[in-house]
Amino acid sequence: MSFGPRIQMIEGLKIFWWVWTAFPITSLFYVGKQIQSKSITYSMNAIMLKNEPFLKVQEIYNSLELFKNNREDSHLDSLIFPVKRLSEKFSIESEFGCGNADVINCENDIARQIELLSDYLPYIAWRYR
Fold it and tell me: N- or C-end of the chain: fewer Cβ atoms within 10 A?
């Protein structure tokens, strides 16, 4: 009894299944690469782009913490806690400045509020020196 043709058939089936499973996996990697290589278009009307709001809010938070630590006073806690929460929310948001006009308008309103808070930092520093 010869096992030659039967072994060849089993080896042929193994090769077929390897190719059959490798092709979809390879095509998924190709599609993923194509999707990730698309560049994001930012709006020309956006005030802040990418992670600028996060960096600005983080700067405000660090300044408030510094003012609080210099004075060792807890009066700033009511302002520090919301700024910290805002910073955490912006750390999750990766892209600012892309989207339709309504999204950009909302993001611009947020950016103006961040800039207003940043403009008040010297007054807070003067008050808590």
Answer: N
